[in-house]
Amino acid sequence: MDILYLMILCSVSLAAVFLVVFIVNAKKGQFEDDESPAVRILFDSDEVKEEKGTGDEKDDEKEKGEK
């Protein structure tokens, strides 16, 4: 019977820890943007790189010069 009390105490403590971690992350904004990752896969990877502006202008100039 003592082990049952110990297991209940451990499970309630673990649930409380998870609740605190969830609340802290929710206040930091961890769960704000839930739509972008699902939509991001629909775009072509080249389009995403162009939008980010990776700073590969020198590489682009080299390719233009080689052609």
UniProtKB/TrEMBL annotation:
Stretches the record annotates as Disordered: 48-67
Keyword annotations from UniProtKB, A to Z: Membrane, Transmembrane, Transmembrane helix
Lineage, opening ranks: Bacteria, Pseudomonadati, Bacteroidota, Flavobacteriia, Flavobacteriales
TM regions (residue ranges): 6-24
Stated name of the protein: Cbb3-type cytochrome oxidase assembly protein CcoS
PANTHER family: FIXS PROTEIN (PTHR41532:SF1)
Top-rank lineage group of the source organism: Bacteria
Compositionally biased residues, Basic and acidic residues: 49-67
InterPro entries in alphabetical order: Cyt_oxidase_maturation_cbb3
UniProt cross-references to Pfam families, sorted A to Z: FixS
